[in-house]
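Task 17 of the worksheet. Students: predict the tertiary structure of the chain below and write it out as structure tokens. Keep your answer in the requested format; marks are given for formatting as well as content.
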Amino acid sequence: MGAVELFFDLVYVFTIIQLSHYLLHDVSWQGALETAVLFLAVWWGWNYTAWAMNWLDPEHAGVRALLVVLMLVALGMAIAIPDAFGERAALFAVAYVVFQLLRSAFMVAAFRGQMMSRNYAQLLGWSAIAGVVWIAGVFVPDDARLAVWGLAVLIDYAAPMVGFWLPGAGATRMADWPLAEEHLAERNRLVFIIALGESILILGSVLSGIELTPSVVSAAVVGFATIVLLWWLYFSGRLGNTEHEAPDQSEATAIARGAYAYAHALMVGGAIVVAVGIEQITHHPLDDADWSMAGTVLGGPALYLVGNIIFNAARTGVAPKSRLVALAALAVLVPFTPVIPALVLGLTVLVVLAALAVATSGAWASAGEDRAITRR
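Model answer:
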């Protein structure tokens, strides 16, 4: 992975901050749906760029120039997020559409005469179709924009599922998209760490501006431990995004599509929601939890677990039972949310995640296998 890709990710640090604050300012069904649409657009732009870099040389001057331009356009999307469903709708939609079209057009030109050029021409066609809907959403009334942009998201996300099928051109075969899966795995690890970093930033910001009472400190410890456990679970040697035996090349692309394009959207999104839940608990540790708090404190880990289930199912064909049990445990907590303090709710979620980490750790799963504490 080239340094330019790490540089490109810097704009996503700011973007994730913008998304978490958008949800934090409107923790309602409307706010959650709007945040989801914005996040899915941001994720799809990043995801397609990560895939494109499988086939490009990050040291080439033209590729570096492309990423710098995309970074600038992505910054435009990020600064539009706080008012994307209002006065800055045009900035967000136009930036997103330019982001998608520019990268695909570059790929068509870079691989002219090769199969990859044909593949990206069809991807470009689908991005253009979705782009029309994104731009149309700018001109509808504000209260209708969510529905129109939701349709645009569905078009974007459906495209790979149908092989970018177009009339007269047919569909592209998965075998025609050869890739290095480990590159995608590493890129997704880094963006997940960025998402967890937002939780740390929010926690630090909250603690810097309020009185450090015993309940606040306790809530902060619970929040920090939750972040650590999400990191621990994500990098689990058995069920996390760690190095593993590469699949047969003919299956690698299909596996990567499910594991990285789709599953990681839920895992990264879950980490962003967790950040909002931590802020709520730390600010109001002794208040009774309400339904909005249930949506973040329970919903964030639940989103992560659903993504992790899809991730493992894509890679192994099996949905891990431990994750399903943990998901069920979170669901059991939902009816009790309005009658327990926020700190107790956060602590209970922490216990569920801790139990999951212990149950699936290498110490239990490897039946006495010794692992050296030092590097060999």
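Marker's comment: Residues 13 and 194 are 6 Å apart (CA to CA). The chain has a mean pLDDT of 90.
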